[in-house]
Write a structure and sequence with these properties.
Elements lengths: L3 H10 L6 H14 L3 H8 L2 H10 L5 H15 L5 H7 L2 H9 L7 H11 L3 H14 L3 H8 L13 H8 L3 H7 L6 H5 L9 H14 L6 H5 L6 H5 L10 H4 L19 H14 L3 H9 L2 H11 L3 H15 L17 H34 L15
Length: about 400
């Protein structure tokens, strides 16, 4: 690890007018340091080097700029440095104009940086205010996200997780749920976006977060938005249903093709289930979800699901669907106050359930490893460590 004198020497090489080969070695050194906790901690205490990295993202050498961007991506993944990057380095306000440039080559790295910085609620608020007050605003972020080939040089998929992280904040959810902006309606089709699980998961996370605001549930479930089919379709499979079961299902969920595949990412599947569960927090929401024959889709889905924690989330959802309505005064499940003794029992049950899920996962993993040891490999599987 570098000492204080070496850090100062390194900083002297991180300038725009430094000879290219020397500057390149210096940025490579910094990038290497960002690969470890100790290295990131060291760099996080040097505002001068962080500012120099940001300045060198404008370097004429693509290799130097690339090293600097990747170093900043790694640094932004360390929450202990977030406040320094935002407050002292002013990273967000400096990078935002580049993100909005449709010809900029490093916009994907900027998306990753912003996504990292918004994971923690405190710095998420700082980024949101910078976007609103020092940039074109969240409306522009949504426009870029929903515009195919906005920047033909990059993919911008990490705008999805950025939107999801921002909707931790009530003010960001308020923007997404503004009835006059039609933002939710623009995002809904991306629950089926096959080209990127990152983009798809970001949208599902955004929708899930928006479902915490129960005052909007009636609108979300109405024909004006009709969110439920978009949440159910990724969970639906090719199973053949009877005519009676088909009747009453949303049109998009009827007569699905034989090659219909379910969402392959278990984290996304779990978020879809959580979003539906939130929509059933109120009596009116539960009524709509039941009338749309959600149980039929979940029944078949539960037979298919192999991930223990996701299956458990599905079981909880089905339990609410088939249970009797709560007593008067307890209809809104998000506002029910749970007595301490009941809360303690529920906490104990949750811990026992988590232990059961962990055990099931361990058994699944062991079964999978045993299969590999005996030379068994399912059709379409790839050897561990090798890409498809």
């Amino acid at each position: 690890m570098l000492n204080e004198e070496q850090m100062q020497e390194l900083l002297g090489f991180l300038t725009l007018d430094t000879r290219l080969d020397v500057k390149g070695q210096a940025t490579e050194c910094v990038l290497g340091l960002t690969g470890s906790n100790d290295g990131r901690s060291l760099l996080g205490r040097s505002v001068g080097i962080l500012q120099a990295l940001l300045m060198l993202t404008k370097d004429p050498s693509r290799a130097v700029a690339k090293d600097c961007y990747f170093a900043l991506v790694n640094l932004s993944a360390d929450k202990t440095i977030h406040q320094t990057l935002i407050q002292d380095v002013r990273l967000v306000s400096t990078l935002l104009p580049n993100l909005f440039d449709p010809g900029y080559d490093f916009s994907d790295q900027i998306c990753s940086i912003l996504s990292n910085l918004t994971r923690e609620k405190r710095t998420c608020a700082d980024v949101f205010h910078a976007i609103q007050n020092e940039g074109p605003g969240l409306a522009k972020i949504v426009d870029i996200f929903c515009t195919d080939s906005y920047n033909e040089n990059v993919e911008l998929n990490y705008l999805g997780p950025l939107l999801s992280n921002l909707t931790q904040l009530p003010e960001a959810r308020q923007f997404i749920l503004d009835k006059d902006r039609c933002v939710v309606q623009r995002l809904l089709p991306y629950t089926q976006y096959e080209a990127s699980s990152v983009r798809r998961g970001g949208v599902v996370g955004t929708l899930r977060n928006c479902c915490f605001d129960h005052s909007h549930h009636q609108w979300l479930l109405s024909n004006e938005v009709d969110i439920l089919p978009y949440l159910l379709l990724p969970l639906a499979g090719p199973e053949e249903l009877s005519e009676d079961e088909m009747e009453g299902l949303p049109v998009d969920l009827q007569y699905l093709p034989e090659d219909k595949r379910r969402e392959k990412d278990p984290d996304i599947r779990k978020m879809l289930l959580e979003a539906i569960n939130l929509l059933m927090a109120t009596r009116s929401g539960r009524k709509v979800v039941r009338e749309k024959k959600t149980y039929i889709i979940l029944r078949e889905y539960h037979k298919w699901e192999t991930e223990p924690d996701v299956a458990a989330a599905c079981e909880k959802l089905i339990e609410v669907l088939i249970s009797d309505e709560p007593e008067p005064g307890m209809e809104n499940l998000l506002e029910v106050e749970i007595p301490e003794e009941i809360e303690g029992k529920l906490k104990l049950q949750h811990e026992e359930e988590q232990q059961r899920i962990a055990k099931e996962k361990e058994e699944l993993l062991k079964s999978s490893e045993d299969g590999r040891e005996h030379g068994h490999r399912g059709r379409g599987d790839s050897p561990e460590g090798l890409g498809r």
